[in-house]
Design goal:
Blueprint lengths: L2 E5 L2 H17 L11 H8 L8 E6 L2 E10 L9 E8 L8 H15 L4 E6 L2 E7 L2
Parallel strand pairs: 4-5
Antiparallel strand pairs: 1-2, 2-3, 3-4, 5-6
Helix pairs in contact: 1-2
Length: 132
Amino acid sequence: MSIEFVNMNETYAKDALALYNAYVLTSTATFSIAPLSRFEMDDLLFTGLKRFPSFAIIADGEFSGYVMLNRYKPREAYDQTAEVTVYLDEFFHGKGIGSMAIAHIEAFAKEHEFLLALLQTSHGLYQCFHQT
């Protein structure tokens, strides 16, 4: 299976919205209680801050999910801390794509001198990496 990580764009944002809203309706993973509008999803995906990107995950040419770094808190002391978000279409679960997405975003974060990245899962909060 060929996996690519592509900068999020308007086309993939529509797919990301559908995927996110499916999670809203079927799980507690999103911490949202109602589906998002396109405008709300665009606010999550396109922060305007290059330091906090979002990437579409493309598996064999097909949108399979997305991974992104979110600003942890809007204070200067947290500028080197990020929250990691990964959502995968359930068809692509169990194929190692989630691990590849974490590795991709972790490499980006280290390259951009983040000190700490946190990942929230349905099983709890995990530290992806910590640099000193």
